[in-house]
Amino acid sequence: MLAICGGDGIAVFVKEFGGAPTFRLRERAAPVKDIAFSPDGKLLASGSADTTIVLYTLEPGNAHVVTAIRGERNSVEAIAIRPDGEMLASGGADHVIRLWSVATGEQTAVLDGHADELTALCFASDGRSLFSAGRDGEIRFWDLKAGNRSDAVGRHDDRIRQIALRPGRRELASASRDMTIGLWTLSNREESRTWSAHTGGADALAFSPDGRLLASGGRDSAIRIWDVDAAQELLTLTAHSRPVLALDFNRAGTMLASGAGDNQVMLWGVG
Question: CATH assignment of 2-155?
């Protein structure tokens, strides 16, 4: 399943990519800024510039709104669903993270620790912690089982545009406008590796499901594939004509989807 968001809503492709999407979701006139699937793929959450969060249920032949949350005060720039599908996190221009019950749409907590707009969120695989990053250049760790306690993981010299947890490892990657990608060891909160990656800044990151590969995209319109352990660039893909803004692998790790400012979404064979 593949979902694409933008100024005209969300397009969802369930089985095949290309041609008309399976579903078109257009409940709002404002651009959709971020989307996230639940782990079972049956729920899609979206955050919009109109300050709303909308949750859709995706069923064979049918997609409809199950909850519309209107508790945000500013544009929703980042969104994430906890692995158990029961909690949703959102962040935006008001610097705080809000936690929501997926079942009821009620706000359960407000996490305040960043000094500027939130740009990226991701839950740990066990759902016990949350990671966030923003325009302040800081990555933060939130312990959701210890009163939402917060610690700094690391910092870039400019805004962070994306973060991603490495599967099977206690490591996190970050992409920044300072033109670097950082790899952080979470056990000691230290940067174990830095790549100078994209002229103009790095915008997008995705690990392969086995954690061996890292894909990055940026303002130079290029996609780079890295061997993480060898700290080596394996491949550069240059078909896009504008900044690469989103990347994701399929579950088998054999394909990579990329979205860019040229309004093109491409699929790449990487297996």
Answer: 2.130.10.10
pTM for the model stands at 0.91
Joined tokens for residue 234? 């394996």
pLDDT, tens digit (0-9, with 9 covering 90-100), for 69-120: 886 778 899 999 999 999 999 998 888 999 999 989 899 999 998 999 999 9
pLDDT tens-digit map of 205-236 = 999 999 999 999 999 999 999 999 998 999 99
